[in-house]
Amino acid sequence: MRGKGLFAGALVLSFVILGPWKAVAKPPDRSAKCQSKKVSAASIFVKKLFYEEAAFLQNENYNRDQAVEEAKEEFIQRWNEAEATDQCHFPWGAGIDLGGENGVSFANIYKLLDWMETGTSPIAHLILGQVNREQIASVNLGAEILRAAGRMAFDLLKAESQFLNKPNQGKLIRARERATRAFEDQYRKRIQHALGANVDVRGLDDDGNGDGKYDLLVEVESDTEKLVEDIVKIFKAPSQ
After folding, report:
1. What range does the domain containing 127 cover?
2. Domain-located, residue 40
3. Cβ contact 97:103 at 8 Å
4. Which residue has the higher pLDDT, 18 or 194?
5. Rounded to an integer, what distance in angstroms lies between the CA atom of residue 126 and that of residue 142?
6. Is residue 75 part of a domain?
7. Looking at the predicted structure, is the pLDDT value of residue 68 above 90?
């Protein structure tokens, strides 16, 4: 009888100990993990778009169109791998609200890719429009700034991808700050080096409002952040 009582007591105790663990356990959000993979694919694609512009700026014989097509194929492969989980199929043809009375709708993945390319192009051309193509040093400077913008876009999207996979608001904020700070540091460093070498930096070093930041830097940074924000809203659409 005594042994039986001890066994019963131990059984009760086991429920007391194990019960709370079962109560707090949560299954992983597979939809968020799938969306995270899609945003990660976008980070690579958008970065490559900036890099292809930089490569073409420095070499007009560079086959930019072929490189972009290869980047699109890689994106589609990554996208399909994410959707193979059956957890975040994209709502093709449905309206997606981007805020501010702006909305988009995509018939297929090629239209989505076109939208991302169209969104990246104006940012790249902000930089390209200030390059003196008659001066090789100016061309190289423009290419470096394009690549820096591409790295910023990559880092911002990567931070959003990681947040979707493992939400941590503080970590996301710090990652965003690191991404923009790295771009600003690279931009300033390149401009200062160019000025010291008597490179034509007109339009790249303007500070019209005297806030201590180059106007083009601020515009590129702001437009890239908005593009990233819209991409995340679009890719999260199935869960909303």
Report:
1. 28-239
2. yes
3. yes
4. 194
5. 10
6. yes
7. yes
